[in-house]
Amino acid sequence: MLIPAISRVIRPCAPYLDEALSRVAGQERIYEEIDFGRVIGVSNCVATHAGDDIVYAQRRNRLGWTRFVKNRQPEPCSSVVVVLAREPDGCYILRTAFLGRKTPAEPWDLDARTADSLSFWSAHALVWGLSEIVPGTETRVCPWQPEAVPGAPGGWYHRCMLALHRWSAAVLGRVRRAEERRLG
User: Fold this and answer.
1) Contact at 8 Å (CB) between 74 and 44?
2) Using one digit for the tens of pLDDT, what is the confidence trace for 37-88?
């Protein structure tokens, strides 16, 4: 059973979700690509080539920078990818679904990245203009270069951890102030 509290679904794959979900096994976490054997739409993730106009930017609700290509268009695809998480009651929450192929996590995702993440995302990108971008985050500098390693000042990991630290400090400060007001 699918819980209707869907965190994010790319609308073009919605008509295919029932069939796609009927094809996947009942595991704790499901990350599956379901091929329909016919073109069902377009994929936003494309292979890149020398001469492509590459930029990096932070997508909304992401901690790291994504590789984008500005001079390409989405390509026809026949697959839907679904990511589901099983709840304690046996129901599933759809974490995401999109038209396209199964890919490694982006290199900035410390919890999910694999040995293939860097090589894959160095040769692929999302098509620019189709994702909501955090204003002011666009750059042509690759955040995954050797100097941008975890802990290196100015690297992507360092920037993410600083942002997380600032956010948590702000939240804790608000909680403390509210508790002080309550206790008076």
Assistant:
1) yes
2) 999 999 999 999 999 999 999 998 888 899 999 999 999 999 999 888 877 8
Token pair 């600032």 in the structure block, residue: 166
Element (H, E) at 42: strand 41-43
Backbone angles phi, psi at 118, to 5 degrees: -65, -45
Asked whether 134 and 76 are in contact (CB, 8 A), the reply is no
pLDDT tens profile 143-178: 876 555 444 445 555 566 556 656 666 666 676 677
User: Which amino acid, one-letter code, is at 174?
Assistant: R
Strand partners of residue 127: 69
Burial 85-112 (b: 16+ CB within 10 A, else e): beeeeeebebbebbbbeebbbbbbeeee
Structure tokens at 152: 């290196």
Residue 44 · residue 130 · CB < 8 Å: yes
Q: What is the pLDDT of residues 80-99, one digit of tens each?
A: 998 888 778 777 788 888 89
DSSP H or E stretch at residue 55: strand 54-58
Question: Which stretches of 75-171 are assigned E, i.e. beta strand?
Answer: 75-77, 79-86, 92-99, 124-127
With DSSP H G I counted as helix, E B as strand and the rest as coil, what are the percentages for the chain, rounded to 5? 25, 30, 45
